[in-house]
Specification:
Layout: E1 5-6, H1 8-15, E2 23-32, E3 35-44, E4 61-66, E5 76-77, E6 81-84, E7 94-106, E8 113-114, E9 121-125, E10 127-128, H2 130-141, H3 148-151, H4 154-158, E11 161-164, E12 167-169, E13 174-178, E14 185-188, E15 190-194, E16 203-212, E17 222-228, H5 232-243, H6 249-272
Parallel strand pairs: 2-6, 4-17
Antiparallel strand pairs: 1-10, 2-3, 5-15, 6-14, 7-8, 7-13, 7-16, 9-11, 9-15, 11-12, 16-17
């Protein structure tokens, strides 16, 4: 990152090139009328566009991702990424995600959406504020600029933010990145699924957040639909349950675009594990 310190795992992810897949994608960060906006930006074989699917219940943008993708192990992912382009943001703007509500999940057994009942949570690691990270480093090395009270905040940020049935805990908002002098940034966060009492339940997990930044109105909420342990067919059912019914022709067209993209995304997943 440019002006913000992050955990070691996050640092590695942010500098890693997007390779090994036909394409990957980001939540595209824009601004309209002083408000942050979200869309869809693909790298590779798909052209850039708007949000590729809509959650029919809320009308919010819906993004897929898969634990176990991108070499992070079966309980981790770094998708989706977040990207703004030159001229979008004021230089130095710090963009964060603001968790909303509570975690939901869908299993093939009941095929309904509910709060996870077995203690599952999704943890995301954001950047650590610069002043806290610097002071923590000074204190670790015994430097004269050590401020114990400020350094004591480091573990709070280092532990990550949790989405669970009980809502959001830990840092909230969670820092993504800061805009460079051209007003652009591109970053991926580390997401993990956990169950403090054992192995997470195979299911589709739904987390909701908005993008926030000083000087801008918060974006409309968006949803990320995580797959953990479901077959491609099962995950497709979970995805379809959020984009149907579609009463308006424009919504139907958007649904078809979303399903087409999801099919390509599934094939990408399959090739990644060959």
């Amino acid at each position: 990152m440019k002006n913000i310190f992050s955990g070691l795992a996050l640092t590695v992810v942010l500098v890693a090139p997007l390779t090994g897949h036909a394409f990957s994608y980001d939540v595209r960060v824009g601004v309209s009328g002083g408000q942050l906006t979200t869309g869809f930006h693909a790298h590779g074989s798909l052209p850039p566009g708007g949000g590729f699917a809509k959650d029919f219940i809320t009308g919010q943008n819906l993004y897929p991702t898969d634990f176990g993708d991108f070499g992070g192990g079966p309980l981790a992912t770094n998708d989706p990424g977040f990207q703004s382009f030159a001229g979008t943001l004021a230089p130095g703007t710090i963009v964060s995600i603001q968790g909303i509500g509570s975690l939901e999940y869908w299993t093939p057994a009941n095929q309904t959406w509910a709060a996870p009942s077995n203690g599952e949570l999704i943890r995301v690691h954001g950047a650590i504020p610069t002043d806290i990270a610097l002071v923590y480093t000074f204190c670790q090395s015994g430097g004269m600029l050590c401020d114990p009270a400020l350094a004591a905040q480091y573990p709070f940020y280092a532990q990550g933010s949790n989405f669970s049935a009980n809502g959001i805990s830990g840092p909230n908002p969670t820092i993504i990145d800061d805009a460079d002098p051209q007003g652009a940034f591109h970053a991926h966060l580390d997401w993990f699924i956990e169950n403090p009492d054992g192995t997470p339940t195979p299911a589709a997990y739904l987390a909701t957040f908005a993008l926030v930044a000083d000087g801008y109105l918060a974006s409309e909420p968006v949803k990320v639909l995580f797959n953990y342990g479901l077959t491609d067919e099962q995950y497709m059912l979970a995805f379809e349950s959020r984009i149907q019914p579609v009463p308006e022709p424009s919504a139907a067209a958007l649904m078809l675009i979303g399903l087409a993209f999801l099919g390509l995304w599934v094939r990408r997943r399959q090739s990644a594990f060959v």
